[in-house]
């Protein structure tokens, strides 16, 4: 199990390094742009889905 998670973590790190920063993060001069906030309604809905789905997962 440790080997599987270690390999998965290394592949995820390599993938993140390959993909790089998200589009729009940096301006043309290299300055960091502020990314708009998230929709709080989606945050709440996702939290409820995870919370109630956890019971079905552990049943």
Element layout with pairings:
Elements: H1 2-19, H2 40-57
Please explain how this structure is put together:
The protein is an all-alpha fold and about 60 residues long. The protein has one domain. About 60% of the residues lie in helices and about 0% in strands. The chain contains two helices and no strands. It has helices at about 1-20, 40-55. The two termini are about 25 Å apart. The model has no long low-confidence stretch (mean pLDDT about 90).
Search tags:
59 residues, mainly alpha, 2 helices
**How many DSSP helices?**
2
| SSE class | mainly alpha
Low-confidence stretches: none
Shape: flat
* Order of helical and strand elements: HH
Radius of gyration: 18 Å
Report the strand count. 0
The description of the largest β-sheet is: none
Task: Estimate nothing, just give the exact number of structural domains.
Answer: 1
What fraction strand?
A: under 5%
Helix content: 55-70%
Distance between the termini: 23 Å
How would you state the average pLDDT, rounded? Answer: 91
